[in-house]
Write a structure and sequence with these properties.
By secondary structure, the chain is α/β, with parallel strands linked by helices.
């Protein structure tokens, strides 16, 4: 493939200063393009410089990365993301944590398949499994239907804080740590939030918050 085709750049988001990930190395060779490595701190430090870049993430290390990137707007469309090394099917809520996800590769997939998908993403295409696409379609259909939901809901200040934490993709434990409350208290607040918003789960609550809350 001609290198000049690839005007857009993929960056490998890594939690440590490594420069020899075998999957990344092989994808670079297959595509004949460079995939620079970038750490969360660097991404946060130069947010505007890295705006609109494509981030490639190894799902095996995402939980470690998550503590560093939860303050980054990955759930926002600012970043396109490519997820690889996924062991099993993800929930819709987990998929949404990666924002504008363009490609997802399971652990069993070949380097040739990953490289081909990455090439399509660089050329502004999507490369998602059918089941993932179906999950996202179902989610966004709910978002459209939720536009008829009342924008004025009697939420307490604490419930609003928790909704904002949900939008960042924080877990119950992370919310509890951030707000200095117990995990049980978080669950109690979530129950009241779901009831007031007439939603059934976190994904639907996040959809409501994205539509009706400015920040």
């Amino acid at each position: 493939m001609a290198k000049n085709i690839y005007a857009r750049t993929i960056y490998f988001l890594t939690e440590k200063n490594q420069q020899n990930d075998p999957v990344i190395d092989q994808v670079q060779k297959q595509l004949c393009v460079e995939i620079p490595y970038i750490e969360p701190n660097d991404l946060m430090y130069a947010m505007q410089l890295h705006k609109h870049k494509i981030l490639m993430i190894d799902h095996q290390y995402y939980q470690t990365l998550n503590n560093q990137i939860r303050d980054l707007p990955l759930s926002n469309k600012m970043f396109e993301t490519i997820l690889f090394n996924v062991e099993k099917r993800l929930t819709t809520e987990e998929i949404l944590c990666f924002g504008n996800i363009k490609a997802l590769f399971y652990r069993h997939e070949s380097i040739e398949s990953i490289a081909r998908g990455c090439g399509e993403v660089i050329n502004s295409q999507n490369w998602l499994p059918r089941k993932v696409t179906a999950q996202l379609i179902h989610y966004y259909r709910h978002v459209i239907l939720s536009q008829t939901s009342p924008a004025t809901v009697d939420l307490t200040s604490r419930e609003i804080q928790i909704l904002r934490c949900l939008k960042t993709g924080a877990s119950n434990l992370q919310i509890a740590d951030d707000l200095f409350i117990s995990e049980f208290t978080v669950k109690s607040h979530l129950y009241q939030i779901f009831k007031k918003l007439s939603v059934k789960n976190r994904v639907q609550a996040i959809a409501w918050a994205n539509q009706h809350m400015l920040s």
